Amino acid sequence: MTATDTTPAALGTEAAIAAPIVPIQTRSERPWSFEPADFGVPTGREVNWKLSDVRRLAPLFVDEETETGEPGIDYDVAALTERGLLVESSGHDAPVRGEIFRPEDVVSAIAWQRCANALHVRLPEGKEQAEPAIVRLHGTGADRHANAHIVIEAMPGSIGTVVLHHSGSARYAQNVEIVVRDGARLTVISVQDWQDDTVHASAHQAVVGEGAFLKHMVVSFGGGVVRVNPSMRLAGHRAEGEMFGLSFADSGQHIESQVFMFHEGTETRGNVLYKGALQGIGARSVWVGDVLIGRDATGTDSYEKNQNLVLTDGARADSIPNLEIQTGDIAGAGHASATGRFDDEQLFYLESRGIDEEEARRLVVIGFLMEIVQKIGVPEIEARLAEAIDEELRRGAGLAPASKAGA
């Protein structure tokens, strides 16, 4: 186990008895390893698992060969091959793979070990892609286990968008390694449009070079348990990063994102905004946002915010923003979190203009979530998500104002 390790095994039996185990206090001290055995099986008491649905995620904790025969995930990358955007990536030592990626939990370590070959998407140097590069990943069955490592690399001066679109059913462990070279401008959008029997855990790790820009978006609607944890390291001078998220959890769904933005370079700029809506018994969303401004990150300007709209009784949203600042020479830093019900004044305004209550509620939710949808910049995806939001709301038609349920 690399980095900070305070487990009894690391301390030794006698030391563990003599000294209390000190929990990891900051996101930057989290240990990492490429070996699954170094992590052990999560119990739900660990800092990065305590809000997760470990019972339903348990199949992804097993380190074993996946079944032979029909693959758990079908990849549709024919269009990328035609455009020359795919790069051969065979073996764990392939170029770029592992350049910045470090597994921080057992699921990520298993995916690293069990997926020998990566899917490597590269945007050519100095060129702008007129159309987004869309990778369609379709799960072939909830009983099929699949592991994946995906590399997205934007070469210096390149401009483009890469979309990971997930559908079907699967038990899917996924690593996504994102490298934005100096001067590049990249947008990465991960859409989780799974069937309700899917279990999906994904770790996205990104580094942004000098004068480069990365917009990272996580959009989660479908799936039984969806855990997409993105981290972004603004390493270069004047690197910029935006991290946006949108989720809609229905009855029995667990949608989670633990977000980390690390300001490492000087004069970096960062913005994090995640929004979620929840309806139905057992609907659950978890958002943990960590921002670290490093010792040398002078001139940093950073802000993070999470907002959740709870539509019915029986739904729960957990929201935990954290901000760690190691230098006082910054332009600004802040964080905010809010979870609540419908705004009665907004409803009154709409109803006073002849709109019935159900339609008024629908318009309020759409207006709340569309702020994120409109940041995507891909008309095809924006239109599909607008339809998905409307479908979710009509599925829960007749939403009544919640009385006292805790959020």
Task: Provide a short characterization of the protein structure.
The chain is an alpha/beta fold and 407 residues long.
Please count the beta strands (DSSP E, at least 2 residues each). Answer: 16
Main sheet summary: 16 strands, mixed
Overall geometry comes to globular
Oligomer: single chain
Q: Count of DSSP helices?
A: 8
Distance between the termini: 36 Å
Radius of gyration, in angstroms, nearest whole number: 21 Å
Q: Tell me the domain tally.
A: 2
Structural class: alpha/beta
- State the helical fraction: 10-25%
Order of helices and strands: HHHEHEHEEEEEEEEEEEEEEHHH
Give the low-pLDDT segments. 4-22, 398-407
How confident overall, as mean pLDDT? Answer: 88
Strand content: 35-45%
InterPro entries: Fe-S_cluster_assembly_SufBD, SUF_FeS_clus_asmbl_SufBD_core, SUF_FeS_clus_asmbl_SufBD_sf, SUF_FeS_clus_asmbl_SufD
Organism: Agrococcus citreus
Family: Belongs to the iron-sulfur cluster assembly SufBD family.
Domain SUF system FeS cluster assembly SufBD core: 141-368
Protein topology:
Layout: H1 8-11, H2 13-18, H3 54-57, E1 73-76, H4 78-82, E2 86-87, H5 106-114, E3 119-123, E4 133-154, E5 159-180, E6 185-192, E7 199-208, E8 213-220, E9 225-234, E10 240-249, E11 254-263, E12 269-278, E13 284-293, E14 301-310, E15 316-325, E16 332-340, H6 344-351, H7 357-373, H8 379-395
Parallel strand pairs: 3-4, 4-5, 5-6, 5-7, 6-8, 7-9, 8-10, 9-11, 10-12, 11-13, 12-14, 13-15, 14-16
Antiparallel strand pairs: 1-4, 2-3
Helix pairs in contact: 6-7, 7-8
